[in-house]
Amino acid sequence: MSENDMPLDFGDPAGLEALREELRAWLAEHPVPERRPGEEPAEFLHRWHRLLHSGGWVGLDVPEEYGGRGLTALHQVAISDELGTCRAPGVPRIGYLAHALLEFASPEQRTRLLPRMLTGDDVWCQGFSEPGAGSDLAGMTTYARRSDDGRHYVVNGQKLWTSYAQHSDYCLLLARTDRHTPAHSSITAFALPLDRAGVTVRPLKAANRDDEFCELFLDDVTIGTDERIGAEGDGWRLAMTTVNYERNALDTGHLPKYGLLLEHLRQELRERRGELDDGLVSAVGRCVVDYQVLVAHARRRTAERLAGRTAGPESSVDKLLMTRAEQRLYETALRVLPDELALAGGAVYGEYLYSRAASVYGGTSQIQRNIIAKRLLRLPSASQSSRTS
Ligand SMILES: Cc1cc2nc3c(=O)[nH]c(=O)nc-3n(C[C@H](O)[C@H](O)[C@H](O)COP(=O)(O)OP(=O)(O)OC[C@H]3O[C@@H](n4cnc5c(N)ncnc54)[C@H](O)[C@@H]3O)c2cc1C
């Protein structure tokens, strides 16, 4: 790997290089702002989101009628990649929520909700997991009871690990609307405004000192039927669509971040030749192989998306590859760079801590293996865990 082949090379079937150049020119005029004293990471990223949107760099693959640019997944991926290559923070992590709305919301809801999601006027979070329902999402107990006149629901329950709910305006919420039918047909999705009476958000501090996680308590919260996304019972399909997009390595801008760190490690090895043991050198070599496999996979996945395939269970393979590449890379980086060099906008140690969560968020690595065994390899199932289905 050399510096020259670091950006993902998809060829240039649709003016991608021109788009990358446009972004580089825009970045030259709009440098990444400094984080203000006391500004939370989520607040900083929100400011960056708005700035990116002002340049037309958010929602490239969202239709123009909903505030996007109506381009393809390939354009979106190329932009994420270019931002990482330029060491800028990535695009806002809203692609998977936008896809859920595009596929399940009514035209009126898409028109009302999507443009504000793209501008950053409304910040969204994902309210799926509960204290007793993470991997086994079908075990959720949050319940939305329909009122006698049928006009609204009253929701009670608790969500957990809801990322950045304290900074959000809306939650894509899953709740059961029927306690007597199987979970896969009794879960319903809602767009819940978080300023609604009865909603309490309590942030939790994580090991990296970030308060990303929140508990979300719902006590007699009223939600209108016009705030339901899709039909009653569509929530399971919506959830699977959302996580399949979320498990994707493409939209995150992570690939160039890994590529830059690897290049830095290779530089260190060259400069400290003879000082480092062979084990460390081969560990870096293994990271390079992980990275190349991930990049090859990302290219293939992009081609599939361009051919019109929506994200499916094969995104579990992406998630496992990304997790392995990321965790090994930061473990190795800490061995090569014991002084915790700061790179690509964040201290390596902070990135290392967050990389430990990669095998949990969006569905754990064990669950991804279950999905691969069941859905891709069609092996017989030994367990009924629902995030595996
Ligand atoms: C950084 C981060 C951000 C997150 N953000 C959000 C968010 O915004 N919204 C949201 O809804 N959730 C979010 N989550 C929650 C995440 O989806 C869950 O943590 C995850 O699905 C696992 O659920 P759990 O924590 O309840 O663990 P459990 O489901 O209790 O699992 C515990 C362990 O048992 C294993 N296990 C469970 N079932 C099986 C099985 N059938 N076969 C083999 N092993 C099994 C798991 O792999 C795991 O190792 C986030 C998590 C993290 C780490």
Topology:
Elements: H1 16-29, H2 41-54, H3 73-85, H4 95-104, H5 107-119, E1 124-127, E2 143-146, E3 152-159, E4 170-176, E5 187-193, E6 199-203, E7 214-224, E8 228-229, H6 235-246, H7 254-271, H8 278-306, H9 315-336, E9 342-343, E10 346-347, H10 348-355, H11 365-376
Parallel strand pairs: 1-4
Antiparallel strand pairs: 2-3, 3-7, 4-5, 5-8, 6-7, 9-10
The structure holds flavin-adenine dinucleotide.
Secondary-structure element series: HHHHHEEEEEEEEHHHHEEHH
What percentage of amino acids are in beta strands?
5-15%
Q: Supply the CATH class of the largest domain.
A: Mainly Alpha
Biggest sheet strand order reads 1-4-5-8
What is the name of the CATH superfamily of the largest domain? Butyryl-CoA Dehydrogenase, subunit A, domain 3
Shape: globular
Computed CA radius of gyration, to the nearest angstrom:
21 Å
Task: Write down the domain tally.
Answer: 3
**Percentage of helical residues?**
40-55%
| CATH-derived architecture of the largest domain | Up-down Bundle
What can be said about the biggest beta sheet? 4 strands, mixed
Describe the structure.
- The protein is of the alpha+beta class.
- It has 3 domains: about 5-90, Butyryl-Coa Dehydrogenase, subunit A, domain 1, CATH 1.10.540; about 125-230, Butyryl-CoA Dehydrogenase, subunit A, domain 2, CATH 2.40.110; about 245-389, Butyryl-CoA Dehydrogenase, subunit A, domain 3 (Up-down Bundle).
- It contains 11 helices and 10 strands.
- It has helices at about 15-30, 40-55, 75-85, 95-105, 105-120, 235-245, 255-270, 280-305, 315-335, 350-355, 365-375, and strands at about 125, 145, 150-160, 170-175, 185-195, 200-205, 215-225, 230, 340-345, 345.
- It has a 4-stranded mixed β-sheet with strand order 1-4-5-8. Strands 2-3-7-6 form a 4-stranded antiparallel β-sheet, with no helix packed on it. Strands 9-10 form a two-stranded antiparallel ribbon.
- A hairpin with a 2-residue loop joins strand 9 and strand 10 (about 345).
- Helix 1 packs across helix 3 (about 75-85).
- It is globular and about 75 Å long.
- It starts with 15 loop residues before the first helix and ends in a 13-residue tail after the last helix.
- Mean pLDDT is about 85; it is low at about 1-5.
